[in-house]
Automatic annotation (TrEMBL):
PANTHER family: PROTEASE HTPX. This is Protease HtpX homolog. Coiled coil: none annotated. One of its GO terms (cellular component) is plasma membrane. Belongs to the peptidase M48B family. The chain crosses the membrane at residues 7-24, 30-47, 142-166, 178-198. Keywords: Cell membrane, Hydrolase, Membrane, Metal-binding, Metalloprotease, Protease, Transmembrane, Transmembrane helix, Zinc. Binds 1 zinc ion per subunit. Residues 68-280 form the Peptidase M48 domain. GO terms for molecular function: metalloendopeptidase activity; zinc ion binding. It holds the Pfam family Peptidase_M48. Its cofactor is Zn(2+). The gene is htpX. The active site is at E133.
Amino acid sequence: MQQLRTVFFLGLLTGLFLLIGGVVGGASGIIGAFVFAVVINFISYFYSDKIVKWMYRAQPLSPHSEQGKRVHHLVQQSCTKMQLPKPELFIIAENSPNAFATGRDPEHASVVFTQGILQLLNDKELEGVIAHELSHVKNRDILISSIAATVAGAIGMIAYTLQFAAFSGRDGENRNPIGLLIVAISVPIIATLIQLAVSRSREFLADETAAHTLHSGEGLASALQKLEKGIHHIPFAHANQGTAHLFIANPLGGESEGINVLNWFQTHPPISERVRRLLHQKSAQH
């Protein structure tokens, strides 16, 4: 099912690039856009995880340090419970607490932690976070999420280029500035919708899978509450809107509570709702 979703997603993006190419350059623009789409799809499929780790300057987490031993041990325990191969572990030199999983399948997966999350959480809470990230691996939604992050960046560049082209065209050039502007405005919105489509529901599913694996959602619920406060007090210095959906909690903060139109345009469901579901799942299991 995830493979079909990935193929559909890449096909949809190819169509978007072709549309943009047609608006910008007519028939020749479509040909150029097709070549660009093929390149982006190839890079997204095979290298999106490496690009994201490079963006955040993630470094391998050594299993020999005291901190590394702790994390590697907890990850191995959860992998055994979930019958998954152990992913590569990375760390980001960032004090804002957060984590994410990336890769294209369980055999090529990575889990990335910030320095802040390892300092903030106790073992039970960190175990909950690890189980959540491994749930993304097990549910095979890490590929499409990583692709979405890469493509969102590419779309951002396209939007900027189109805005520049709309206002800087030389006289006599066969361009449609109104069309360019419409596409330039629409493209970032489409990028946001793409992120929303692959993010919100999968967070609930990963929470549920983690709680089921650990027979309790208490540790993860406590971790999420700490992360919400931690991110508020220590903002993520180099967080990128295009990759925000990858993280266990929105690194940009700003989540609204309750029923709010703004919630429709956030990459993550409210922490309070996630905590409520996790604790309800715990009581239901008992």
